C-alpha cells in the first residue's frame, strides 16, 4: 500500500507537469485517462488503507473524520496558493500552466514526506496492526470481497453520502434564482458550507461514530436529518428571510459532512479484515462514486428542460437517496447481528 500510494501520487504529479507543457486536446485526453489510473486505481484505494492502518479498529470513525477534515483544509491552502500563482501572470494560459506545474511540485514534495511518514509492512507488524504472517492477495480474494454483503452496504453508504455532497452545490443557484438571495451572499455562504463546516463536522461525525460504537448510526441520523431539511427547503416561498435560508443551508451541510467524515469507516464496522482494505476501498469507491457518471448530466438536463421547477426534482431525488441510505443502515445493523461470533472476533468476512 505504501508503494502504491507514493507511485500513484508521483504519477499524478508527473501527468500534471506534462500537461502544462503539452496543452492540446488530444494530449489532455491522454492525461485525464492517466489520472484515472494514477488517482483512482493506485492512489485512492491505497489512501483508504493507509488511513485505516493509522489506528486500531475501535477508532476508525475518528481517524477517517480527521482525514476528511484535513483534506478539506489542505484543499483550501493549496488552492489559495494556486490562485495567487495564477494571478501573477497577465496571460491566463501561462497562469494555468504555472498552476499545473505548482500542483506537480506539491505532489513530488508530498511523496518525499509520505515516504518517511507512512509505515511499511514491517513497522505495521511491530505495531500489531497487521498479522505477522500475511498471505498473498490473489484474484480469489477480490471475489471474496465482492461477494461480501458488507462491501455492498459500505458502497451504498458512500453512494448516498456522495450524492448529498454533489447535490448541495445546487442549493446555491436555488437560493439565488428561486428564493432571491443575492449571488455574492449565496456564494460566500457556499464557501463557509464547503470548507468551514467540512473541517468541523467531519471529525465530529467520526468521534460520534466511535463513541456510539457504530458509524452507521451516525450515517442514518445524518440521512434522516438531511431528508428533513431538503423537504423543508422544497416548500420555502420566494422572499424567505435570509436568516432562515442560512440556517437551512448550514444545517444541510452539517448533516452532509457529518456523514462524509464517517462513510469510509463502514468496512471496519462490518468486520472486513484490514488485509482486504484496499480491495474493499476500490469496490466501495466504484459503487459510491458512480454518481459522477450521471448525476450532473441528469440534474443539468432537468434544469435545462424545466427551469427553476427542476430543483424540486433534485430535492425529491435527494430525499429518495436518503431513504435508500436509511434502509441500507437498517440492513447493516441486521447484517452485523448475523455475523458469527467467532468470525466477528477474528475480523473475518
Write up this protein:
The protein is mainly α and 349 residues long. It contains 16 helices and no strands. It has helices at 2-20, 25-52, 60-87, 92-117, 121-127, 139-147, 149-167, 171-177, 183-211, 215-234, 242-260, 266-269, 277-288, 291-306, 310-338, 341-346. Helix 7 runs antiparallel to helix 11 (242-260). The radius of gyration is 21 Å and the shape is globular.
Give a brief description.
The chain has helices at residues 2-20, 25-52, 60-87, 92-117, 121-127, 139-147, 149-167, 171-177, 183-211, 215-234, 242-260, 266-269, 277-288, 291-306, 310-338, 341-346. It is mainly α and 349 residues long. The longest helix is centred in the middle third of the chain and has 29 residues, at 183-211.
Amino acid at each position: 500500500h505504501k508503494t502504491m500510494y507514493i507511485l500513484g501520487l508521483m504519477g499524478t504529479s508527473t501527468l500534471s507537469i506534462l500537461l502544462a507543457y503539452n496543452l492540446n486536446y488530444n494530449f489532455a485526453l491522454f492525461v485525464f485517462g492517466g489520472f484515472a489510473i494514477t488517482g483512482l486505481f493506485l492512489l485512492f484505494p491505497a489512501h483508504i488503507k493507509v488511513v485505516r492502518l493509522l489506528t486500531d479498529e475501535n477508532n476508525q470513525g475518528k481517524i477517517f473524520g480527521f482525514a476528511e477534515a484535513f483534506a478539506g483544509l489542505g484543499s483550501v491552502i493549496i488552492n489559495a496558493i494556486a490562485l495567487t500563482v495564477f494571478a501573477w501572470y497577465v496571460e491566463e494560459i501561462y497562469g494555468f500552466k504555472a498552476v499545473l506545474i505548482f500542483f506537480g511540485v506539491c505532489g513530488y514534495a508530498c511523496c518525499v514526506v509520505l515516504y518517511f511518514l507512512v509505515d511499511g509492512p514491517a513497522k505495521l507488524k511491530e505495531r500489531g496492526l497487521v498479522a505477522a504472517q500475511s498471505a498473498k492477495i490473489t484474484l480469489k480474494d477480490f471475489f471474496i470481497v465482492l461477494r461480501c454483503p458488507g462491501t455492498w452496504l459500505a458502497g451504498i453508504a458512500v453512494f448516498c453520502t456522495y450524492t448529498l455532497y454533489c447535490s448541495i452545490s445546487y442549493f446555491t443557484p436555488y437560493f439565488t434564482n428561486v428564493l432571491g438571495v443575492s449571488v455574492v451572499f449565496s456564494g460566500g455562504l457556499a464557501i463557509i458550507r464547503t470548507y468551514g463546516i467540512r473541517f468541523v463536522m467531519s471529525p465530529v461525525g467520526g468521534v460520534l461514530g466511535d463513541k456510539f460504537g457504530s458509524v452507521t448510526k451516525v450515517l442514518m441520523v445524518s440521512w434522516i436529518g438531511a431528508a428533513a431539511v431538503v423537504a423543508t427547503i422544497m416548500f420555502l416561498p420566494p422572499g424567505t428571510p435570509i436568516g432562515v435560508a442560512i440556517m437551512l443551508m448550514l444545517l444541510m451541510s452539517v448533516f452532509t459532512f457529518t456523514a462524509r467524515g464517517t462513510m469510509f469507516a463502514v468496512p471496519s464496522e462490518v468486520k472486513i479484515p484490514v488485509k482486504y482494505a484496499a480491495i474493499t476501498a476500490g469496490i466501495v469507491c466504484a459503487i459510491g462514486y458512480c454518481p459522477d457518471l450521471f448525476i450532473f448530466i441528469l440534474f443539468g438536463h432537468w434544469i435545462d428542460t424545466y427551469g427553476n421547477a427542476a430543483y424540486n426534482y433534485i430535492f425529491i431525488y435527494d430525499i429518495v437517496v436518503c431513504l435508500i441510505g436509511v434502509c441500507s443502515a437498517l440492513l447493516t445493523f441486521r447484517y452485523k447481528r448475523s455475523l458469527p461470533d467467532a468470525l466477528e472476533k477474528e475480523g473475518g468476512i
